[in-house]
Amino acid sequence: QVQLVESGGGLVQAGGSLRLSCAASGRTFSSYAMGWFRQAPGKEREFVAAINWSSGRTVYADSVKGRFTISKDNANNMMYLQMDSLKPADTAVYYCAAKYLALTIRFVTPTNGYDVWGQGTQVTVSS
Question: Whose CB has fewer CB within 10 Å in the chain, the N or C terminal residue?
Fold first, then answer.
């Protein structure tokens, strides 16, 4: 069973940086895509970034492109989200997620359909 545990959230001033980490366990992740999503108060959960564990191909939401960087450490089953130039609008609970990819879509990096989730970590950006 896949388990995901996020860490690294906190309070930061606008313009600052944070790095989120996601520790993944329970599987060999070469057949998975991994992603970050966020949910602000009163809003629906939204896609932030994703990475294909095998190919390394990345995808970003337009709202974070150029400011956030997703990366992975295959050897340690870790995923990261480096967040720079943070804005108050980035305030949300951030979730790590995983999606198994069937053979026919093994090199795709999806932005939806994730079905394994971590517990979330709060990111608060003050103005």
Answer: N
